[in-house]
Amino acid sequence: MALSQHDSLRLMESLRTADGIELARVLAQRIVLSPHAGESAG
Question: In three state form, how does the secondary structure of the chain look?
């Protein structure tokens, strides 16, 4: 995946909570559906 180190660390920490699981799903969908994942406007 095209995640920065910071994003990866946040994702790892988020996975420890139920909200993190949902966040991971949303991020995964955004990454997959985004035509330019590296050009995220935030």
Answer: CCCCHHHHHHHHHHCCCHHHHHHHHHHHHHHHHCCCHHHCCC
Chain centre distance of CA 38: 12
- What's the CA gap between 42 and 28, in Å, rounded? 15
Q: Are 15 and 24 in contact (CB under 8 A)?
A: yes
Check the CA dihedral 28-34-39-42 and report its sign: negative
pLDDT tens by residue, 13-32:
777 776 777 888 888 888 88
Global model pTM greater than 0.90: no
